[in-house]
Amino acid sequence: MRIFTDTNCEIDFEEFNDLGVELIKMPYTLDGQMSYYDLGENTNLSDFYAAMEKGAVAKTQALNEHDYIEYFEPVLKNGEDILYISFSHTMSGTFNSMNMAIASLKEKYPDRTITCIDSGQISIGGGILVKEVIKNYRQGMSLSEIPRLVERLRGKIMIYVTVGDLEYLRRGGRISRMKSMVGSILGFKPIIYMDGVRGMLDSAGKVKGRKAAIKHIIGIVEASELEEGSELVILYAGCLEDAEIIKENLLEKYNNNPIKMHEVGPVVGAHCGPGTVGIVFIKK
């Protein structure tokens, strides 16, 4: 069986290459020029966010049915089955195309199996889940057991972020124009979390000011019971200094938890915008 995932899992490309799985590259455009995210191998994220700061428009789009067939058919033709661990299905229309591709391929290759499992996650939260599934599968977990593992992990992986500019969330349809305007005028910063059970972004409240938002996110981590030895991953989008502030505040308390820095990829970053900063952790 061949395992697939997509670049919205945002595993660093060097680490990804060691996993031995197949990669579906998700598309994005910057001022109309299309690219496919490569997990940072040849993508300069600093330049991407700097361009957005200067007014460049970043957008995402769905893969089409033919794209998915090109990824999957060579594997099926070779007599192998497929397990695809995807980013949250509620966050993109790309899975409509994927489902059509799978239906077409099942007719052509009736003896082969294509299993798609929704991680319910996005960004490195999805990456953490993907790595855990691969580890368990390599250690002998059966395909039938993997959905139960994913269901358990979806609700344990926590992502909390705040954004630099509400306008990017408005463009992506996450908040209304009126909320964006009022929030910007009053200086409110939203605290957003990824609800892995529902596979959706949701509000965890709002505070006034950037510093207060960062402090609030640190407080959420400190008030949570973390899984022993699990990673803390600090997310940032073109705002390394703010990410360093979070890291410094957490270093003393979490000596037994590795703390990593992760710059958000361009597909996710097109929706949250430069200035996004937050943290991913695994709760007990």
Describe the structure.
- This protein is of the alpha/beta class and 284 residues long.
- The protein has 11 helices and 13 strands.
- The protein has helices spanning 13-19, 45-53, 65-77, 94-108, 124-138, 146-154, 166-171, 177-186, 210-222, 240-251, 266-272; strands spanning 2-6, 22-24, 27-30, 33-36, 58-60, 82-86, 114-118, 157-162, 188-195, 200-208, 232-236, 259-263, 277-282.
- Strands 10-9-8-13-11-12 form a 6-stranded mixed sheet, with helices on both faces.
- The radius of gyration is 19 Å and the shape is globular.
Compose a concise summary of this entry.
With 284 residues, this protein is of the alpha/beta class. 41% of the residues lie in helices and 24% in strands.
Keywords:
284 residues, alpha/beta, 4-stranded parallel β-sheet, 6-stranded mixed β-sheet
On the 0 to 100 scale, the average pLDDT is 91
Structural class: alpha/beta
Order of helices and strands: EHEEEHEHEHEHHEHHEEHEHEHE
Principal-axis shape equals globular
Strands, helices and their partners?
Layout (H helix, E strand, L loop, with lengths): L1 E5 L6 H7 L2 E3 L2 E4 L2 E4 L8 H9 L4 E3 L4 H13 L4 E5 L7 H15 L5 E5 L5 H15 L7 H9 L2 E6 L3 H6 L5 H10 L1 E8 L4 E9 L1 H13 L9 E5 L3 H12 L7 E5 L2 H7 L4 E6 L2
Parallel strand pairs: 1-2, 1-6, 6-7, 11-12
Antiparallel strand pairs: 3-4, 3-5, 8-9, 8-13, 9-10, 11-13
Helix pairs in contact: 3-4, 5-6, 9-10
